[in-house]
Amino acid sequence: MLATTLRTARRFSYSSSCKSLKHRYFPLPSSLAAAINIRANAFPYFSRSAFHSSLNSPTLDHCCNNGESHLNQEILCNGNDPLPSSSHKPLLITRTISRKRSTLGLQPHLNSIKSKRFTTDTFSAIELALDSVVKVFTVSCSPNYILPWQNKSQRETMGSGFIISGKKILTNAHVIADHTFVLVRKHGSPTKYRAEVQAVGHECDLAILVVDSEEFWKDTNCLELGDIPILQETVAVVGYPQGGDNISVTKGVVSRIELTQYVHGASQLMAIQIDAAINPGNSGGPAIMGNKVAGVAFQNLSGAENIGYIIPVPVIRHFISGVEESGKYVGFCSLGLACQITENVQLRNHFKMGPEMTGVLVNKINPLSDAYDIMKKDDIILAFDGEPIANDGTVSFRNRERITFDHLVSMKKPNEKSVVKVLRNGEVCELRITLRPLQPLVPVHQFDKLPSYYIFAGLVFIPLTQPYLHEYGEDWYNTSPRRLCERALRELPKKPGEQFVILSQVLMDDINAGYERLAELQVKKVNGVEVDNLKHLCQLVDKSEDSVRFDLDDDRVIVLNFEMAKIATSRILKRHRIPSALSHDLMEDLSFHNSQLASSS
């Protein structure tokens, strides 16, 4: 079976796209899109910036290239719509034939009216969008997680965005990830304006930009957010995809609405599948329905024809409202549970579920969640905030549609309480649980921040992150160290602030000779004390006297003379041209910690 993967439609190279243009199929623009492009060409401006050129590889699962890769995600049909019974089939066929016969002569006229109405409505919406959609130019620089004191080469990329109320620009987070410089340009204008990132939510792949220049806001309109479209409703995607420099418009219909993996943030949130082409450069552009925004274009399905995804309005509103209320991105809440479906009859009977009961089985609880002290393993969750949960983990969503109950949880505000109805030992009870965003033991992404590291006697210590594993290549799940990979995907934190600290590599020197094969192992103890995080490891090493002992995974041990190790550290840093033995965040934390100790004494 053909492997299908989600990818964000963001970056492209001008040179590579021109070379491969004859080998790729680009859908012909509709008459409306052609009219818009002709109008846009009245401004003869073309910029040949050095865009990212790695999109040519057909095996990429996304086009971000921020040093990370994701596992292929197969997209399955929902299959929840009930089929008509056999007794209804003759009636349906008769009605269909009768309707066809009655409208056969009027069909060409009806098609003409429908086409004209769509063209008129869409054209008025696009006219509004022309003064709202902007092109985003980003200069970004990602860190090197193998050599965390270095950055990778700078790259210039492009995306789309649109103006919303409050003189703000909404775009995708992956468009401005690891940014060092951001510019925006209005449609029909040759001038680029400096933009600043006000807030960014990598889990929901959304970001807000602001522009200080008052000249930029002249003759602009803001787009309003609409509602979730119904199936087969038509939307128009506006943006600046590859293949040209001017604005582009494509149209399609809504095919599916369900929770989907967001490739950039590796999170599961609601997304809308459409059959409009979403290509690199479209990311951040609006999907317009009527005269309002139905979503934000952000990723497509590789290996498939014209299957794109847009971020729906509920996710957008949750992101914007959180930023407005707290001044920063607040995240999406989680119960902190791992649940199992209960479609098996014997399983339901074992947990004393009655014939009228439906729900899901609790397998694992995150120790940092509020549910850890309230819920128990083997509880059956029957309902969430009064919404009954089916045996497959879904709840009712609109007319004859269903969606997993995780959507209800993710739409809650941080520190908001919810009522969870559970079945425990055959008795039904209601529990009140406070919801909040939860962080995994091994971070899924590390955008817009430098990685932490600590070097002592040539031993490089870092907290394990998935971006570090992604440095092993696109097939990182199979090529990275198996034990680290399994723990990164499965292990849960046991206390706040806990990190999975590893010895990533050994910078060879006389003092560490013989320890070079102990790389890529977890550091469990320093001088007999369990390590909580990298900062704690630094403090334990600084408190050493004669020698330092590191207890690693697999019962491996490293012992160093403390004074000789400090001298060797300076020598090794100079040899490898490393500016500091500590990352900037550790230097700030340790200096603050030392100042507190000095003031208390």
TrEMBL record:
GO BP, sorted A to Z? proteolysis
What keywords were assigned to this record?
Hydrolase, Protease, Serine protease
Gene3D superfamilies named among the record's database cross-references: 2.30.42.10, 3.20.190.20, Trypsin-like serine proteases (2.40.10.10)
- For the Protease Do-like PDZ domain, which residue ranges apply? 442-585
Q: Which domain of life is it from?
A: Eukaryota
Q: Which GO terms describe its molecular function?
A: serine-type endopeptidase activity
Q: Which Pfam families match?
A: PDZ_3 (PF17815), Trypsin_2 (PF13365)
List all membrane-crossing ranges.
none
Hydrolase among keywords: yes
Q: Which InterPro entries match?
A: DEGP_PDZ, DEGP_PDZ_sf, PDZ_sf, Peptidase_S1_PA, Peptidase_S1_PA_chymotrypsin, Peptidase_S1C
Q: Do the record's keywords include Hydrolase?
A: yes
The text of the family note is: Belongs to the peptidase S1C family.
Instruction: Give the PANTHER family listed for this entry.
Output: PROTEASE DO-LIKE 10, MITOCHONDRIAL-RELATED, PTHR45980
Recorded protein name is Protease Do-like PDZ domain-containing protein
**UniProt source species:** Cucumis sativus
